[in-house]
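Board notes (copied after class):
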Amino acid sequence: MDNPKTFLIEEYKDYIYSIANLFYGIDKEDLFQAGAEGLYESFLSYDDTSDVKFTTYAYKNVYGHMYALISKNNDFKISKDTWKLYRNIMTKYQEMAQLNGRLPLMSEIAKELNIDDYLLNATIVACQKAPSLEEEVCENKCYLDTIASKENVSIDDKIFLEESMDNLTNLEKQIINYRYYHDMTQQEIANRLGLSQVKVSRCEKQGLAKMRVYAKECA
């Protein structure tokens, strides 16, 4: 462990993986290696007398190297946990802005949510650069989570989503609304509607399949 670079990467291994875990569809070790290069570059340019924590300073380079890798691969997706965190960040942003009468600092939101600054920033950047509507709504259902939070979604996208649900049955619409607008589990929906969890799962898949067809027809 005499090599300073090796020691640095080992010391911040969990930090690098926490950013790599924002994505799936890309080999984690490849993401880790890319992030490690960004970490080391940050270490070489970091001013240790600065008030900014090293992890916060380094995240741009770590994420940047990872994004350079994933941007070459069309198969990457944003994980469900990442979308959920993003929605929580945006919700907290609105709550704090309304409560305090000013726009909150990112560090204030991170403190409220008990997460590190670098993870908050990397999550925001990752979700803002997420794949297309068709991929996220129809294949991974993540885009619906961003609709539920009511921020950073254009009017056109909201209209598109509503139109894509026109061919759904009332039950399918109801289930998708509960799942992605109200963040309910399939079992919670089943309990509310008096259905089996299997029935809810089947209706959800059917509804999303219809939305997939609509998205492809409009592409």
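Comment from the instructor: The domain at 133-218 is CATH 1.10.10.10 (Arc Repressor Mutant, subunit A). The chain has two domains: 4-128, 133-218.
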